[in-house]
Description:
It is a single chain. With 341 residues, this protein is an alpha/beta fold. It has two domains: 161 residues, 3-Layer(aba) Sandwich (Rossmann fold), CATH 3.40.50.720; 157 residues, Dihydrodipicolinate Reductase, domain 2. The strands form two sheets. A seven-stranded parallel β-sheet has the order 3-2-1-4-5-7-6. Strands 9-10-8-11-14-13-12 form a seven-stranded mixed β-sheet. Strand 13 and strand 14 form a beta hairpin. Helix 6 packs parallel to helix 8. The mean pLDDT is 92.
Amino acid sequence: MISVGIIGGTGYTGKYLLEYVKQHQKILDYSIYANSSAGSQLLDIFPELLGVIENQTIQSVNALSFEHDLYFISLPHGESLKYVPMLLEKGIKVIDLGGDYRLDSKELYNEWYGFEHSSSNLLSEKVYGLVDIANEKILNSNFIANPGCYPTSVQLGLIPLVKKFSDEIISISTVSYSGTSGAGKKAKTELLLSELDGNVKAYSVNKHRHQPEIEQELAKYGMKSPYAFTTHLLPIARGIYSTSTVHLNYEVSEDEVKQIYSDWYADSKFVRMRNTPPELKWVVNTNFCDINISAKDKTVIITSTIDNLIKGASGQAIQNMNKMYGWDETLGLLNSNFIKA
């Protein structure tokens, strides 16, 4: 049994961490730490969780204790830098759900995130926690950088193909769609119902922060080709849908490509291969990633979908925790009945 601290537990991601942690058979107790909501009662922040979790006072991150075995950190970009080094120095395990340690190069943080990385020595120490791919690296690790939501959906869909056909790939392009919860709880005019209802739009074109993360990880599996990534906002609360188009320099059969994916994910607990393009409603409120493959002539089209708050954040973080400690990856994740965001 372990004790858990959640730093930044009052956002959408924090809410699901709370529910997972509460129902997890291997977690003895937990505490919540926050900034602006410190001193508030947990059930005042999440009244819908009455009867689901016990109430507690949210503690200030300025009075962070080091009494827990593991800390989840769910803070805005740049904020994890304040806590990760001191926690690791004390030998405490950390799973960071933000983007502060996902990239391998400190220069990329200047370019894509707009800040100077203050603990760049830790970039090489973290394990990038795409758990369905980097499974064995996570076992017994102390520091996990939880992947971004878009990168999770894209990479699970692309890595088996890139690994097999890297020298034959001419180009890859991904078009992804997300619900508004991916932007967090902060009020923004462009996320108002009156702005989004009946509307779809592209955003952060050629400058989305998740692009270097995707390119970095795909390169580790041999990608040498140009890559394009375009994100869109949907008038829904949650879910990510990614369609990746891969152009090859020779023809491949659909059966051959499907077999590659079946073999790759044969032991995966949370990746499901589908015979038809998946639908968002199949994965919302779950930790699954559903993938479909279509191949014709020299083109392979991969559709993949996840719940951005669960597989793209809290659920994958719990899956990473399970793997860190050598527990069954499904522990606390299957048969979960959550209050919807």
